[in-house]
Amino acid sequence: MSSGMKRFQDAVLLAAAGLLVFQAVSAVRSSQIAGAPVFAASQQAPAAAQSGAGTQAQTQAETTQRAAGSQERSPGAEAYVRHCAICHGEQREGILPAFPPLLGIKRQMTDQQITDITHNGKGRMPGFPKLSNQEMTALLQFLSTTELTMPSASASAGGNGTSGNSSGLSDAGHALFQQNCAFCHGRDAMGGETGPDLTQSKLVLSDTNGDKISAVVREGRPEKKMPAFNFSSQELLSLVAFIRAREAAAAAQKGNRRGVDVADLQTGNVEQGKAYFNGAGTCSKCHSPTGDLAGVATRYQGLQLERRMLYPEGVKSKVTVTLPSGTSVTGTLAYLDEFTVGLRDSENAYRSWSIPNVKKYTVDAPVEAHADLFPKYTDADIHNLMAFLQTLR
Ligand code: HEC
Ligand code: HEC
Ligand code: HEC
Under CATH, what is the fold of the domain 3-143? Predict the structure, then answer.
Protein backbone atom coordinates (compact mmCIF):
# COMPACT_ATOMS: atom_id res chain seq x y z
CA MET A 1 0.00 0.00 0.00
CA SER A 2 1.36 3.41 -0.86
CA SER A 3 2.10 5.67 2.06
CA GLY A 4 -0.30 8.24 0.65
CA MET A 5 -3.10 5.72 0.72
CA LYS A 6 -2.17 4.69 4.23
CA ARG A 7 -2.19 8.27 5.42
CA PHE A 8 -5.58 8.75 3.84
CA GLN A 9 -6.97 5.70 5.61
CA ASP A 10 -5.50 6.84 8.91
CA ALA A 11 -7.12 10.20 8.42
CA VAL A 12 -10.47 8.58 7.76
CA LEU A 13 -10.15 6.45 10.89
CA LEU A 14 -9.16 9.45 12.96
CA ALA A 15 -12.03 11.42 11.54
CA ALA A 16 -14.45 8.64 12.41
CA ALA A 17 -13.09 8.36 15.94
CA GLY A 18 -13.20 12.13 16.37
CA LEU A 19 -16.76 12.28 15.19
CA LEU A 20 -17.89 9.54 17.56
CA VAL A 21 -16.23 11.23 20.51
CA PHE A 22 -17.79 14.49 19.43
CA GLN A 23 -21.26 13.00 19.19
CA ALA A 24 -20.92 11.29 22.54
CA VAL A 25 -19.72 14.50 24.11
CA SER A 26 -22.55 16.50 22.62
CA ALA A 27 -25.07 14.07 24.01
CA VAL A 28 -23.51 14.45 27.44
CA ARG A 29 -23.29 18.18 27.00
CA SER A 30 -26.91 18.69 26.24
CA SER A 31 -28.13 16.90 29.31
CA GLN A 32 -25.51 18.44 31.57
CA ILE A 33 -25.90 22.08 30.69
CA ALA A 34 -29.51 22.26 29.76
CA GLY A 35 -29.75 25.49 31.73
CA ALA A 36 -26.78 27.26 30.23
CA PRO A 37 -27.98 30.37 28.41
CA VAL A 38 -25.57 29.99 25.51
CA PHE A 39 -27.33 26.92 24.26
CA ALA A 40 -30.65 27.46 25.93
CA ALA A 41 -31.39 30.25 23.48
CA SER A 42 -32.05 27.60 20.90
CA GLN A 43 -35.40 25.98 20.57
CA GLN A 44 -34.08 23.38 18.20
CA ALA A 45 -31.56 21.71 20.51
CA PRO A 46 -31.88 18.57 18.43
CA ALA A 47 -29.51 16.29 20.30
CA ALA A 48 -30.95 17.29 23.66
CA ALA A 49 -34.36 15.85 23.06
CA GLN A 50 -33.07 12.33 22.47
CA SER A 51 -30.47 12.03 25.19
CA GLY A 52 -32.00 10.85 28.44
CA ALA A 53 -30.03 10.16 31.59
CA GLY A 54 -29.69 6.49 30.70
CA THR A 55 -27.97 7.09 27.40
CA GLN A 56 -25.68 9.55 29.10
CA ALA A 57 -23.96 6.90 31.17
CA GLN A 58 -23.83 4.66 28.15
CA THR A 59 -22.29 7.28 25.87
CA GLN A 60 -19.74 8.17 28.51
CA ALA A 61 -18.67 4.57 28.69
CA GLU A 62 -18.49 4.47 24.91
CA THR A 63 -16.39 7.60 24.82
CA THR A 64 -13.90 6.08 27.23
CA GLN A 65 -13.78 2.82 25.36
CA ARG A 66 -13.34 4.43 21.94
CA ALA A 67 -10.68 6.74 23.17
CA ALA A 68 -8.77 3.96 24.87
CA GLY A 69 -8.96 1.91 21.72
CA SER A 70 -7.95 4.60 19.29
CA GLN A 71 -5.17 6.25 21.26
CA GLU A 72 -3.58 6.27 24.70
CA ARG A 73 -5.01 9.18 26.61
CA SER A 74 -4.14 10.27 30.11
CA PRO A 75 -7.00 10.32 32.64
CA GLY A 76 -6.78 14.12 32.57
CA ALA A 77 -7.19 14.25 28.80
CA GLU A 78 -10.06 11.84 29.17
CA ALA A 79 -11.78 14.08 31.72
CA TYR A 80 -11.16 17.08 29.49
CA VAL A 81 -12.80 15.43 26.49
CA ARG A 82 -15.73 14.33 28.59
CA HIS A 83 -16.47 17.60 30.35
CA CYS A 84 -14.78 20.55 28.74
CA ALA A 85 -13.99 19.97 25.06
CA ILE A 86 -17.48 20.71 23.86
CA CYS A 87 -17.04 24.34 24.86
CA HIS A 88 -13.30 24.92 25.06
CA GLY A 89 -12.44 23.02 21.90
CA GLU A 90 -10.97 19.68 21.06
CA GLN A 91 -7.45 21.10 21.21
CA ARG A 92 -8.18 23.55 24.06
CA GLU A 93 -8.09 26.23 21.38
CA GLY A 94 -11.40 27.71 22.51
CA ILE A 95 -14.39 28.31 20.32
CA LEU A 96 -14.38 32.00 19.68
CA PRO A 97 -16.03 34.32 20.26
CA ALA A 98 -17.97 32.53 22.99
CA PHE A 99 -15.51 30.23 24.76
CA PRO A 100 -11.98 31.16 25.81
CA PRO A 101 -9.04 28.90 25.00
CA LEU A 102 -7.58 26.81 27.82
CA LEU A 103 -4.29 25.96 26.16
CA GLY A 104 -1.59 27.49 28.34
CA ILE A 105 -4.13 28.51 31.00
CA LYS A 106 -1.73 27.40 33.73
CA ARG A 107 0.47 30.34 32.86
CA GLN A 108 -2.28 32.73 33.87
CA MET A 109 -4.13 30.92 36.63
CA THR A 110 -3.20 28.94 39.68
CA ASP A 111 -4.50 25.42 40.30
CA GLN A 112 -6.75 26.88 42.97
CA GLN A 113 -8.30 29.42 40.61
CA ILE A 114 -8.92 26.82 37.92
CA THR A 115 -10.41 24.45 40.48
CA ASP A 116 -12.73 27.17 41.78
CA ILE A 117 -13.95 28.07 38.30
CA THR A 118 -14.43 24.43 37.40
CA HIS A 119 -16.42 23.66 40.56
CA ASN A 120 -18.45 26.86 40.70
CA GLY A 121 -18.65 27.98 37.07
CA LYS A 122 -18.03 31.50 35.86
CA GLY A 123 -20.25 33.82 33.86
CA ARG A 124 -21.94 31.59 31.32
CA MET A 125 -19.84 28.56 32.20
CA PRO A 126 -21.77 26.02 34.28
CA GLY A 127 -20.08 24.64 37.41
CA PHE A 128 -19.05 21.01 37.82
CA PRO A 129 -19.58 20.60 41.59
CA LYS A 130 -19.55 16.81 41.42
CA LEU A 131 -16.11 16.31 39.86
CA SER A 132 -14.12 13.98 42.14
CA ASN A 133 -10.82 15.21 43.55
CA GLN A 134 -9.11 12.53 41.57
CA GLU A 135 -10.62 13.72 38.32
CA MET A 136 -9.87 17.36 39.16
CA THR A 137 -6.22 16.55 39.86
CA ALA A 138 -5.92 14.67 36.58
CA LEU A 139 -7.56 17.57 34.77
CA LEU A 140 -5.15 20.09 36.29
CA GLN A 141 -2.25 17.94 35.27
CA PHE A 142 -3.58 17.77 31.73
CA LEU A 143 -4.16 21.53 31.61
CA SER A 144 -0.52 22.12 32.57
CA THR A 145 0.59 20.36 29.38
CA THR A 146 0.80 22.40 26.22
CA GLU A 147 1.22 19.82 23.46
CA LEU A 148 -1.67 19.28 21.10
CA THR A 149 -2.42 15.66 21.78
CA MET A 150 -6.04 15.31 20.88
CA PRO A 151 -7.04 13.69 17.64
CA SER A 152 -8.20 16.44 15.36
CA ALA A 153 -11.86 16.26 14.53
CA SER A 154 -11.56 18.86 11.79
CA ALA A 155 -11.28 16.18 9.16
CA SER A 156 -14.79 15.08 9.99
CA ALA A 157 -16.14 18.44 8.92
CA GLY A 158 -13.83 19.67 6.24
CA GLY A 159 -13.00 16.33 4.70
CA ASN A 160 -9.48 17.46 3.95
CA GLY A 161 -8.70 19.65 6.89
CA THR A 162 -9.07 22.95 5.06
CA SER A 163 -11.44 24.26 7.65
CA GLY A 164 -8.61 26.22 9.20
CA ASN A 165 -8.41 27.30 12.80
CA SER A 166 -12.12 27.38 13.42
CA SER A 167 -12.38 23.59 13.24
CA GLY A 168 -14.01 23.28 16.66
CA LEU A 169 -16.77 25.63 15.66
CA SER A 170 -17.11 23.93 12.33
CA ASP A 171 -17.47 20.54 14.05
CA ALA A 172 -20.32 21.83 16.16
CA GLY A 173 -21.87 23.18 12.96
CA HIS A 174 -21.37 19.82 11.29
CA ALA A 175 -23.56 18.12 13.87
CA LEU A 176 -26.26 20.79 13.62
CA PHE A 177 -26.15 20.65 9.85
CA GLN A 178 -26.58 16.88 9.74
CA GLN A 179 -29.58 17.08 12.03
CA ASN A 180 -31.33 20.05 10.47
CA CYS A 181 -30.18 20.73 6.96
CA ALA A 182 -28.65 17.62 5.43
CA PHE A 183 -31.87 16.01 4.25
CA CYS A 184 -32.45 18.94 1.91
CA HIS A 185 -28.95 20.26 1.20
CA GLY A 186 -27.08 16.94 1.26
CA ARG A 187 -24.72 15.65 3.96
CA ASP A 188 -21.82 17.51 2.38
CA ALA A 189 -23.90 20.67 1.72
CA MET A 190 -23.47 20.00 -2.00
CA GLY A 191 -27.13 19.79 -2.74
CA GLY A 192 -29.81 17.21 -2.08
CA GLU A 193 -33.36 16.33 -2.98
CA THR A 194 -34.84 19.79 -2.62
CA GLY A 195 -32.12 22.18 -1.44
CA PRO A 196 -29.44 23.75 -3.63
CA ASP A 197 -25.69 23.13 -3.44
CA LEU A 198 -24.51 25.59 -0.78
CA THR A 199 -20.84 25.24 -1.69
CA GLN A 200 -21.52 26.90 -5.05
CA SER A 201 -24.08 29.39 -3.86
CA LYS A 202 -23.39 33.03 -4.78
CA LEU A 203 -25.03 34.07 -1.55
CA VAL A 204 -22.69 31.87 0.49
CA LEU A 205 -19.66 32.97 -1.48
CA SER A 206 -20.45 36.63 -1.05
CA ASP A 207 -21.31 36.43 2.64
CA THR A 208 -18.43 38.30 4.23
CA ASN A 209 -19.42 37.89 7.86
CA GLY A 210 -22.06 35.18 7.99
CA ASP A 211 -24.95 37.64 8.09
CA LYS A 212 -26.55 36.55 4.84
CA ILE A 213 -26.45 32.83 5.64
CA SER A 214 -27.74 33.54 9.15
CA ALA A 215 -30.59 35.64 7.76
CA VAL A 216 -31.70 32.87 5.39
CA VAL A 217 -31.59 30.33 8.21
CA ARG A 218 -33.45 32.58 10.65
CA GLU A 219 -36.12 33.76 8.21
CA GLY A 220 -36.27 30.81 5.86
CA ARG A 221 -37.81 31.15 2.42
CA PRO A 222 -41.20 29.68 3.12
CA GLU A 223 -42.50 30.25 -0.40
CA LYS A 224 -39.54 28.21 -1.72
CA LYS A 225 -39.83 25.41 0.87
CA MET A 226 -36.85 26.45 2.97
CA PRO A 227 -38.07 26.47 6.59
CA ALA A 228 -37.07 29.09 9.19
CA PHE A 229 -34.95 27.96 12.15
CA ASN A 230 -34.55 29.39 15.60
CA PHE A 231 -30.86 29.00 16.50
CA SER A 232 -28.73 30.86 19.00
CA SER A 233 -26.13 33.18 17.52
CA GLN A 234 -23.40 30.74 18.56
CA GLU A 235 -25.14 27.94 16.70
CA LEU A 236 -25.53 30.14 13.64
CA LEU A 237 -21.81 30.92 13.78
CA SER A 238 -21.05 27.22 13.88
CA LEU A 239 -23.35 26.50 10.92
CA VAL A 240 -21.67 29.26 8.94
CA ALA A 241 -18.25 27.83 9.85
CA PHE A 242 -19.33 24.39 8.66
CA ILE A 243 -20.74 25.68 5.37
CA ARG A 244 -17.52 27.63 4.82
CA ALA A 245 -15.42 24.55 5.51
CA ARG A 246 -17.48 22.58 3.01
CA GLU A 247 -17.14 25.36 0.49
CA ALA A 248 -13.36 25.45 0.97
CA ALA A 249 -13.18 21.68 0.62
CA ALA A 250 -15.27 21.81 -2.56
CA ALA A 251 -13.10 24.58 -3.99
CA ALA A 252 -9.95 22.59 -3.24
CA GLN A 253 -11.26 19.45 -4.90
CA LYS A 254 -9.74 18.86 -8.31
CA GLY A 255 -12.14 17.64 -10.92
CA ASN A 256 -15.02 18.69 -8.71
CA ARG A 257 -18.11 17.72 -10.66
CA ARG A 258 -19.72 21.08 -10.03
CA GLY A 259 -16.49 23.01 -9.81
CA VAL A 260 -16.71 26.70 -10.42
CA ASP A 261 -15.48 27.35 -13.89
CA VAL A 262 -12.10 28.97 -13.52
CA ALA A 263 -12.59 30.35 -17.02
CA ASP A 264 -15.37 32.41 -15.49
CA LEU A 265 -12.73 34.21 -13.48
CA GLN A 266 -10.65 34.97 -16.59
CA THR A 267 -13.07 37.35 -18.23
CA GLY A 268 -11.76 40.55 -16.66
CA ASN A 269 -9.59 43.28 -18.02
CA VAL A 270 -6.11 43.57 -16.46
CA GLU A 271 -5.66 47.30 -17.10
CA GLN A 272 -9.06 48.19 -15.68
CA GLY A 273 -8.38 45.96 -12.69
CA LYS A 274 -5.12 47.74 -12.05
CA ALA A 275 -6.82 51.13 -12.32
CA TYR A 276 -9.49 50.03 -9.86
CA PHE A 277 -6.82 48.69 -7.50
CA ASN A 278 -5.03 52.05 -7.40
CA GLY A 279 -8.16 54.18 -7.65
CA ALA A 280 -11.76 53.59 -6.65
CA GLY A 281 -10.99 50.27 -4.94
CA THR A 282 -8.53 51.99 -2.56
CA CYS A 283 -6.62 48.69 -2.42
CA SER A 284 -3.30 50.48 -2.79
CA LYS A 285 -3.86 52.22 0.55
CA CYS A 286 -3.02 48.94 2.24
CA HIS A 287 -1.45 46.72 -0.45
CA SER A 288 1.34 46.84 -2.96
CA PRO A 289 1.51 44.60 -6.06
CA THR A 290 5.27 44.37 -5.62
CA GLY A 291 5.17 44.15 -1.83
CA ASP A 292 2.75 42.07 0.22
CA LEU A 293 0.74 40.93 -2.82
CA ALA A 294 3.77 39.95 -4.91
CA GLY A 295 3.29 36.33 -5.91
CA VAL A 296 -0.25 36.17 -4.51
CA ALA A 297 -1.43 34.40 -7.67
CA THR A 298 1.15 31.69 -7.05
CA ARG A 299 -0.02 31.23 -3.47
CA TYR A 300 -3.71 31.01 -4.39
CA GLN A 301 -5.48 30.04 -7.57
CA GLY A 302 -8.85 30.69 -9.12
CA LEU A 303 -11.72 30.67 -6.71
CA GLN A 304 -9.35 30.44 -3.76
CA LEU A 305 -7.73 33.71 -4.76
CA GLU A 306 -11.12 35.31 -5.18
CA ARG A 307 -12.09 34.17 -1.70
CA ARG A 308 -8.89 35.61 -0.21
CA MET A 309 -9.66 38.88 -1.90
CA LEU A 310 -13.28 38.99 -0.79
CA TYR A 311 -12.76 37.94 2.80
CA PRO A 312 -9.26 37.16 3.99
CA GLU A 313 -9.56 34.67 6.82
CA GLY A 314 -7.52 34.09 9.92
CA VAL A 315 -6.49 37.70 10.14
CA LYS A 316 -6.00 38.94 13.67
CA SER A 317 -7.55 42.11 15.01
CA LYS A 318 -5.81 44.24 17.59
CA VAL A 319 -7.55 45.41 20.73
CA THR A 320 -6.54 47.98 23.35
CA VAL A 321 -8.19 47.75 26.74
CA THR A 322 -8.02 50.78 29.03
CA LEU A 323 -8.39 49.92 32.70
CA PRO A 324 -9.98 52.25 35.29
CA SER A 325 -6.47 53.06 36.54
CA GLY A 326 -5.69 54.53 33.12
CA THR A 327 -3.23 51.75 32.23
CA SER A 328 -3.88 50.22 28.86
CA VAL A 329 -3.11 46.75 27.57
CA THR A 330 -2.81 46.00 23.86
CA GLY A 331 -2.87 42.59 22.24
CA THR A 332 -4.48 40.33 19.69
CA LEU A 333 -8.24 40.13 20.06
CA ALA A 334 -9.07 36.62 21.25
CA TYR A 335 -12.55 36.90 22.67
CA LEU A 336 -15.38 39.41 22.60
CA ASP A 337 -19.02 39.31 23.51
CA GLU A 338 -21.29 41.72 25.29
CA PHE A 339 -19.83 40.76 28.68
CA THR A 340 -16.20 39.93 28.21
CA VAL A 341 -13.22 41.16 26.23
CA GLY A 342 -10.16 38.91 26.01
CA LEU A 343 -6.81 39.24 24.34
CA ARG A 344 -3.45 37.55 23.94
CA ASP A 345 -0.69 39.85 25.09
CA SER A 346 2.84 40.12 23.70
CA GLU A 347 3.82 37.06 25.77
CA ASN A 348 0.89 35.17 24.22
CA ALA A 349 -0.84 34.99 27.60
CA TYR A 350 -4.64 35.09 27.50
CA ARG A 351 -6.14 37.88 29.63
CA SER A 352 -9.78 38.79 29.93
CA TRP A 353 -11.88 41.44 31.62
CA SER A 354 -15.50 41.88 32.39
CA ILE A 355 -16.58 44.77 30.16
CA PRO A 356 -18.32 46.83 32.88
CA ASN A 357 -15.00 46.80 34.75
CA VAL A 358 -12.93 48.42 32.02
CA LYS A 359 -12.89 52.07 31.12
CA LYS A 360 -13.03 51.37 27.41
CA TYR A 361 -11.73 49.09 24.71
CA THR A 362 -11.03 49.76 21.05
CA VAL A 363 -10.80 47.13 18.35
CA ASP A 364 -8.71 47.74 15.27
CA ALA A 365 -9.73 45.33 12.53
CA PRO A 366 -7.92 46.26 9.31
CA VAL A 367 -9.59 43.49 7.43
CA GLU A 368 -13.01 45.01 8.07
CA ALA A 369 -12.07 47.22 5.16
CA HIS A 370 -12.71 44.21 2.94
CA ALA A 371 -16.16 43.70 4.38
CA ASP A 372 -16.91 47.40 3.87
CA LEU A 373 -15.71 47.28 0.29
CA PHE A 374 -17.77 44.29 -0.62
CA PRO A 375 -21.11 45.95 -1.32
CA LYS A 376 -19.30 48.49 -3.53
CA TYR A 377 -17.85 46.03 -6.04
CA THR A 378 -19.72 45.38 -9.24
CA ASP A 379 -19.27 41.98 -10.90
CA ALA A 380 -17.11 43.70 -13.50
CA ASP A 381 -14.88 45.20 -10.77
CA ILE A 382 -14.37 41.76 -9.29
CA HIS A 383 -13.55 40.17 -12.64
CA ASN A 384 -11.15 43.00 -13.51
CA LEU A 385 -9.47 42.83 -10.10
CA MET A 386 -9.15 39.06 -10.43
CA ALA A 387 -7.58 39.48 -13.87
CA PHE A 388 -5.10 41.95 -12.40
CA LEU A 389 -4.31 39.89 -9.29
CA GLN A 390 -3.68 36.85 -11.47
CA THR A 391 -0.78 38.69 -13.10
CA LEU A 392 0.96 38.90 -9.68
CA ARG A 393 2.99 35.71 -9.92
C1 HEC B 1 -21.02 24.93 28.54
C2 HEC B 1 -19.76 25.43 28.14
C3 HEC B 1 -18.54 25.21 29.05
C4 HEC B 1 -18.07 24.03 29.54
C5 HEC B 1 -18.68 22.64 29.38
C6 HEC B 1 -16.86 24.34 30.24
N7 HEC B 1 -16.62 25.69 30.18
FE8 HEC B 1 -15.04 26.68 31.03
N9 HEC B 1 -15.78 28.45 30.34
C10 HEC B 1 -16.92 28.60 29.59
C11 HEC B 1 -17.15 30.02 29.37
C12 HEC B 1 -18.32 30.64 28.60
C13 HEC B 1 -16.08 30.70 30.00
C14 HEC B 1 -15.86 32.21 30.06
C15 HEC B 1 -16.50 32.66 31.35
C16 HEC B 1 -16.36 34.15 31.54
O17 HEC B 1 -15.23 34.64 31.54
O18 HEC B 1 -17.40 34.77 31.71
C19 HEC B 1 -15.23 29.67 30.58
C20 HEC B 1 -14.08 29.95 31.31
C21 HEC B 1 -13.26 28.98 31.86
C22 HEC B 1 -12.02 29.27 32.55
C23 HEC B 1 -11.44 30.65 32.77
C24 HEC B 1 -10.65 31.02 31.52
C25 HEC B 1 -10.22 32.45 31.53
O26 HEC B 1 -9.23 32.71 30.82
O27 HEC B 1 -10.88 33.29 32.15
C28 HEC B 1 -11.49 28.08 32.97
C29 HEC B 1 -10.20 27.85 33.73
C30 HEC B 1 -12.40 27.05 32.51
N31 HEC B 1 -13.47 27.63 31.84
C32 HEC B 1 -12.21 25.70 32.74
C33 HEC B 1 -13.10 24.72 32.34
C34 HEC B 1 -12.90 23.32 32.59
C35 HEC B 1 -11.68 22.72 33.30
C36 HEC B 1 -13.98 22.67 32.08
C37 HEC B 1 -14.28 21.19 32.12
C38 HEC B 1 -14.35 20.62 33.45
C39 HEC B 1 -14.87 23.67 31.49
N40 HEC B 1 -14.29 24.90 31.67
C41 HEC B 1 -16.07 23.39 30.87
C42 HEC B 1 -17.76 27.60 29.15
C43 HEC B 1 -17.62 26.25 29.46
C1 HEC C 1 -36.96 21.28 3.74
C2 HEC C 1 -35.79 21.52 2.98
C3 HEC C 1 -34.72 22.46 3.55
C4 HEC C 1 -34.14 22.43 4.80
C5 HEC C 1 -34.45 21.50 5.95
C6 HEC C 1 -33.11 23.46 4.79
N7 HEC C 1 -33.12 24.11 3.59
FE8 HEC C 1 -31.89 25.67 3.05
N9 HEC C 1 -32.88 25.84 1.30
C10 HEC C 1 -33.88 24.99 0.84
C11 HEC C 1 -34.32 25.45 -0.46
C12 HEC C 1 -35.40 24.79 -1.31
C13 HEC C 1 -33.56 26.61 -0.77
C14 HEC C 1 -33.63 27.46 -2.02
C15 HEC C 1 -34.60 28.58 -1.80
C16 HEC C 1 -34.62 29.50 -2.98
O17 HEC C 1 -34.54 29.02 -4.11
O18 HEC C 1 -34.71 30.71 -2.76
C19 HEC C 1 -32.67 26.82 0.37
C20 HEC C 1 -31.75 27.87 0.46
C21 HEC C 1 -30.78 28.00 1.43
C22 HEC C 1 -29.74 29.00 1.45
C23 HEC C 1 -29.58 30.11 0.43
C24 HEC C 1 -28.83 29.61 -0.76
C25 HEC C 1 -28.83 30.62 -1.87
O26 HEC C 1 -27.89 30.57 -2.68
O27 HEC C 1 -29.76 31.45 -1.96
C28 HEC C 1 -28.98 28.78 2.56
C29 HEC C 1 -27.74 29.57 3.00
C30 HEC C 1 -29.56 27.64 3.25
N31 HEC C 1 -30.64 27.19 2.54
C32 HEC C 1 -29.06 27.09 4.40
C33 HEC C 1 -29.72 26.11 5.14
C34 HEC C 1 -29.29 25.66 6.44
C35 HEC C 1 -28.01 26.13 7.16
C36 HEC C 1 -30.20 24.75 6.85
C37 HEC C 1 -30.25 24.02 8.18
C38 HEC C 1 -30.24 24.85 9.36
C39 HEC C 1 -31.20 24.60 5.81
N40 HEC C 1 -30.87 25.45 4.79
C41 HEC C 1 -32.29 23.73 5.86
C42 HEC C 1 -34.38 23.89 1.50
C43 HEC C 1 -34.08 23.52 2.81
C1 HEC D 1 -7.69 49.09 5.07
C2 HEC D 1 -6.73 48.19 4.52
C3 HEC D 1 -7.12 47.30 3.34
C4 HEC D 1 -7.73 47.66 2.14
C5 HEC D 1 -8.27 49.01 1.74
C6 HEC D 1 -7.72 46.46 1.33
N7 HEC D 1 -7.15 45.43 2.01
FE8 HEC D 1 -6.76 43.58 1.25
N9 HEC D 1 -6.09 42.97 3.08
C10 HEC D 1 -5.93 43.79 4.19
C11 HEC D 1 -5.45 42.99 5.29
C12 HEC D 1 -5.15 43.47 6.71
C13 HEC D 1 -5.32 41.67 4.79
C14 HEC D 1 -4.84 40.45 5.54
C15 HEC D 1 -3.36 40.36 5.31
C16 HEC D 1 -2.81 39.03 5.63
O17 HEC D 1 -3.52 38.00 5.54
O18 HEC D 1 -1.64 38.99 5.97
C19 HEC D 1 -5.71 41.70 3.40
C20 HEC D 1 -5.66 40.60 2.56
C21 HEC D 1 -5.86 40.66 1.18
C22 HEC D 1 -5.64 39.58 0.26
C23 HEC D 1 -5.13 38.19 0.66
C24 HEC D 1 -3.63 38.24 0.70
C25 HEC D 1 -3.04 36.96 1.18
O26 HEC D 1 -1.80 36.80 1.00
O27 HEC D 1 -3.74 36.12 1.73
C28 HEC D 1 -5.94 40.01 -1.00
C29 HEC D 1 -5.84 39.21 -2.28
C30 HEC D 1 -6.37 41.38 -0.86
N31 HEC D 1 -6.31 41.73 0.48
C32 HEC D 1 -6.80 42.16 -1.90
C33 HEC D 1 -7.33 43.44 -1.75
C34 HEC D 1 -7.94 44.18 -2.82
C35 HEC D 1 -8.05 43.70 -4.26
C36 HEC D 1 -8.37 45.36 -2.26
C37 HEC D 1 -9.11 46.49 -2.95
C38 HEC D 1 -10.34 46.15 -3.60
C39 HEC D 1 -8.02 45.34 -0.84
N40 HEC D 1 -7.40 44.15 -0.58
C41 HEC D 1 -8.23 46.40 0.04
C42 HEC D 1 -6.18 45.14 4.25
C43 HEC D 1 -6.78 45.89 3.24
Answer: Cytochrome Bc1 Complex; Chain D, domain 2 (1.10.760)
